[in-house]
Amino acid sequence: METTVRTKVKELLKMEPGQIVLAKGWVRTKRGNKGIAFIALNDGSTINNIQIVVDKTAFPEQMLAKITTGACIGVTGNLVASMGSGQAVEIQAQEIEIYGECDPMRYPIQKKDITMEYLRSVAHMRMRTNTFGAVLRIRNQMAFAIHEYFHSKGFVYLNTPLITASDCEGAGQMFQVTTLDLNDIPRNKKGEVDFSQDFFGKQTSLTVSGQLEGELGATALGEIYTFGPTFRAENSNTPRHLAEFWMVEPEMAFYDIKDNMNLAEDFIKSLVRYALDNCYDDIKFLNDKYDDSLIERLQGVIGTEFVRLPYTEGIRILEQAVAEGVKFEYPVAWGVDLQSEHERYLVEKHFRKPVILTDYPKDIKAFYMKQNEDGKTVRAMDVLFPKIGEIIGGSEREASLEKLEGRISELGMSRTNLEWYIDTRRFGSCPHSGFGLGFERLLLFVTGMSNIRDVIPFPRTPKNAEF
Ligand code: 4AD
Ligand code: MG
Question: Which residues are bridge partners to 224 per DSSP?
Fold first, then answer.
């Protein structure tokens, strides 16, 4: 028989019957009777499997026995219209090659209905499951959609450094980067660590945000976005926090907070629409398996106008709720940083749609945010989503040199590694705004997964850096 070129399953399922094809992939299941075996073959190109029909009399029994769940095979055969329900076409096997056997007794994801917790412990294999195949294909499509969205608007993709000497968010939750010998740390006369002997000649960390460098880009190129890994050493063991996550950070010259909110809302809606248009099979699978309101929720977000509400109003609503008997774990009062339970109350119970909360107290927000005239609040904007809470954090930036410097000294921040940033306000300062979208938080929303560890291939969380 003539060797055919391999065709991916996604393509095979769309092809007309009546041709010889070659499929390669991993066996999901094998079932059948004495005379015929049915193999469900998946190659990762789609959630759907191609069915292989094997006439058992045409193949050695020993060989067929090696085709177990997880084994990797190549099958050449005739693509024919399927008699069974569930698929339009199937392959009548003529030749089967086994690339890799898979011991059913030892294959870690052999069993059906294994828990997500267990799958995290075998994250090196979990990509072979339908669930993670679906999630990771959606992740891929969303990354592409983000680039396409900004590209179509003329934004410049700017690569900001991962190693940095400044703490953008001022929260001090940074992973240090050093080549010093930790068993023999050099010290200066005062007994402090002598970072001048370190690789960069100063203390450095992994970045918590590309924003500061992003602002340099925006005040030169106009509109930029970053999209890359971000690191936070916060000890939050929650279903919404990772120590290593990906963030998308657009930064735009001449945008005020309103322009910023408009962009954030349009951006998220386009991404969700893109997901429904381009990942429907995978989303449908996740909808049917885990969360049958997923598709409805996605469509809901596209079709609704986000609420825009000042923080102060938000607190009033929450205080009212408490007065009416709603119980929160954390107290509510003007000035507190909202917990996810508060955010979700506003979004899921009170408004029943996404909320953009603005004008937060300056004391709970970063130094770079534009100060309001009231002297108490800043022009911050957080986009709050159902099931997630905060999905985007952003603001209009303080463009006044004097006010920015005032805030830096008020907070007692060191200017040593910030002078370059302050230069944006010294030389041709301009009104500008930006925000950060947590990529995995977006994926939580789009996939309906309930734990952020399950929307990234290899999660990094406190005490966990396996694989
Ligand atoms: O609100 P954050 O801390 O804002 C910034 O870092 C700004 N510099 C962004 C900007 O204005 N350019 O983080 C932005 C978003 C959050 O809304 C959240 O979605 C996500 O990043 N995020 C995390 N995602 C996963 N794990 C964590 N530990 C996260 N911390 C923040
Ligand atoms: Mg935030």
Answer: 156, 251
